[in-house]
Give the backbone structure.
Amino acid sequence: MPTIDIKDWNNKKVGSVDLPEAIFAYPYKEHLIHEAVRNYLASLRQGTHKVKNRSEVSGSGKKPFRQKGTGRARQGGNRPPIHRHGGTVFGPTPRDYSYKMNSKEKKNALKSALSQRVKEGKLVLLNDLAVDEPKTRALAEKFIGIGIDGKALLVDSFENANLALAARNNPKLQLVDALHVTVYDVVNARFVVLSQDALQRLTEALES
């Protein structure tokens, strides 16, 4: 069973906790993580791309000249795709790119991503993620003090208003609620920083 130290903002150890083996020692499954990330990114696509086909472009459908006797190729109007300003053939139309993924697979992919961060020593547990004031620079200095030197995923609660305000202008920090952590969030950050309360809520969600 993996064990992790609990630290405070001064980077001092204030305790330790045993992490559930079923979650934080889950085997690394790259294909499952890849599929979960692909599913997440697909759901973000708007799918609002659109071109006009020959029935939608402006122009007349009147036959420009008679069918036979002119020596020219027969034409049925000025909107076919072969003409300038004609319709587009097989162009993109609005569609929904999202697709369903088994909820159990999603949970297992998240377990796999989190366990990998534990193995790498990139999962940091703080006793509390509360900050005194919503200052971006002050928060950045706090993370430098605890050894966070790259992109970090902060897992806590949006009710922590000062933390949310201090983190939102820092491109290296992303705050998510413990119940809304995605595989993409974990793999897109170098470090995962949790509060004790967030760890408990996340664990309960993944065990259910």
About this structure: Residues 3-44+99-207 form a domain with the Ribosomal Protein L4; Chain: A; fold (CATH 3.40.1370.10). The chain has a mean pLDDT of 93.
